[in-house]
Amino acid sequence: MLDLKHLIYFENLLDEANNELVAKAVSDGDLALGYNCYYIPETLLNLPGCFSTRLRAPHCVSTDIANYYMTVHNCPYVRSILERAIEGGYNYLTALFGAEACSSMERMEEHFDLIHPVKNDAFFTTIIDAPLKCDNAALNYYKKELNDKVLAPLAERGVDTSEAALKAAIEDHNEVSRIIMEIGDLRKLPNPPITGYEFHVIQLVSEVCPHRLILPYLKETLDEVKARAPEPEFPFRARLVLCGSEVDDPEFTKLIETCGAMVVADRYCFGSFPGREQIVIEDGETAFDAICRHYLQTNTCPRFMPGEKIDQRTELLKNLVEEFHADGIVLENMKFCEFWSYEKVLQAHVQTNELGIPTCQIEKDYALTGAGQLRTRFQAFVEGLEIKQIESAAAERRA
After folding, report:
1. pTM for the full predicted model
2. Where in the chain are the domains?
3. Given this model, what pLDDT does residue 393 score?
């Protein structure tokens, strides 16, 4: 396939948190609002004069300073974020909106307030208490937390948080999401005109860059991909759904694809499932109500323990395998991630033994270390999927 026009530009944008478009928006006077977790609706951070940017720590290979504050037994993602903050990588931020999603995440966010690594006089940190259920009581509590700890601090700083502004933020979210999902849906085709790596890059820039500045590039890329001629034959040996915790390095997706399997669906933190669904304002709802309900209902974090949420996560994975015609699932967890380590084992059992979907379980660091071992695991998994395909075809011929 011909190279995408803006792919190299997108890759360059992902090389640092304070990229060209982020710096441009800040110089224009926009407030850069950082967040780490889906519990913080990015839609609430894209009000007039603001933009959301999901925090990454690209090329962070050492967390020596952060280890002093958090120890090496905490999640490497949160240690990498703190390390980059201490290095001065987030001095452009006006705020960090955190969620007590796990103890490691909360501890990292607290250090933004305790040791003041962000050298910006306007910077502030706020952390919501994220609910563990999805019933009406939990929704009302979630709304209060987001109102008191997200909207109120922004309003105090002169940000327009009116109904009209929130509706405009929903429209912005839906426009970006429509484009991303339309590009992503092309991976359902027998021979897609886009790779999983390319989609991963596109999805990431939509999360870390100001929407008003990245949107023209996304629109042009959508038109380009729709008109793009795929390879003469499908160039991969299998199709996989990648599921897990923080996967914000497209090189990890590229590693899987160099082993012969295309990543056709991205069900992980920083992915489009969930994240890029349309927000609908239902009858009798305010825009704020709709945003809170949407994010709580679509949130499939393994931190949710009620049975209906576990079933929701299982059903989502099964549906992605079916809709994107995947041959198997890669289940990933970040080292020391308590919730995803449990979820990985649970889903491996259910998907493999109850639903008959092959799975591969791996644990990884935040930085892409140990690539040789991962490559061996992925190659063996792909070979196993190929053998299964050959045996299925032989059984059909005999029948």
Report:
1. 0.96
2. 20-162
3. 79
